[in-house]
Amino acid sequence: MTHVLDSLIVGAGISGLSLAHSLLRNPNPQLSLNILVSEHQGRVGGNITTVSQGEFLWEEGPNSFSPTPELLKLAVEVGLKSEFVFADRKLPRYVYWNSQLMPVPMSPPALLSTKLLSPGGKLRALTGALGFVRPAMGQALSQQNGEETISQFFERHLGSEVLKRLVEPFVSGVYAGDPQQLEISSAFARVARMAYSGGGLVAGAVLSRGQNKSSRSPADPSIPQTKRGELGSFRQGIGALPNAIAQQLGDQLKLNWQLTRLERTENQTYRAEFSTPDGVQQVETRTVVLTTPAYVTAEILKPLQLQVSQTLTEIPYPPVACVVLAYPVSAFKQKLTGFGNLVPRGQGIRTLGTIWTSSLFPGRAPQGWQVLTSYIGGATDPEIGELEDDQIVEAVHQDLRRILLKEDISPKVLAVHLWKRAIPQYNLGHQQRLQQVNEGLEAMPGLYLCSNYIDGVALGDCVRRSIGQANEILSFLDQ
Fold it and tell me: Ranges for the Amine oxidase domain (predicted)?
């Protein structure tokens, strides 16, 4: 290209696409930006993978989203306001414990009556939540530079029963991670802030709610009004969002463009070289945003910033398999009404959890069929990455036989998607690693990193982070 771009965005996942959208909608009428989004695959969306087959519709990546204001506004701006679907927030969630599906208590009265915790476990959780908690101290904490793991934090605050039966399966569902390695202030920053600022979880929650009310902006009438606990999607699946943004980008989006080299020029710009279907292409740009995973970003930055590259390689991504199976509704022990079930480790079940897909969002399976989306593997079971597809299906099917099915009936296999590097792990030392990365990037003005290994893996986190990054880039370009 003969002209210089204002911004090159590498990666057309939800982070890169929402960042491009934010840049192009900047409120400054004097700042008409020339941007380009490159994607090495032949499609957009990154981990978002919506698939349909006949009357079946399923996801092989993220299955739903929490309806944050930023995400809702983005979807409305790209024309998807009439396409929203929201799951009933009153649908129960289940934990498989001692060979039974038990509802997760979602309110204080439910917590008092649940059979998932013993009377002693409930009392321990109550006293801890009210702030009767021993301080974080000891040799283990000293060796961890004062950082607490998720296991250490919740056992200290709420006791071992809540940790094993509620927290650990939730961690498996969000991060597919190891709670003995994930750092609490990185993985669950809001919970950690509540505990540290309020002297206890209950006091911190009350304080946080009061602060949020005082700083809350008026409701945006252009976006749907949702309630806490709802999960969202679109009629044609989550893939509708990246596809809609891509359509608006038009020629500013290039698919099948593989970045092969990135270098700094004498003009304080960046030159990027791509392998494309039309041969080698070069681009010069004032700013570059890498929305790629940490391990990909590490390779890109190796010639530019070796220390940053080496630090990024320390962020692990365990393998996770998404297995989508369909069964006749007659095969189940009971009617499936709910979000799905999670499985704590130690229950003789290898599957991390199962989303009851066609119960969560009706209309995604033919009449008389139930679709289940199960996840298996993660940081506590990396061996899943060595299995063949049929072995993974068999492992999931046998687990479902124990938990949900009343007869041994062969499933209709819709998908087996092994993500060999699935979700970035915010393990101990994560904040120090990010600090080292940021310090290294100070020598590279105009180069930015914007991906889910930074501060949140949910779709709403990606959109929020991209909007903030866009504002920083606009300020840089304005200067």
Answer: 14-474
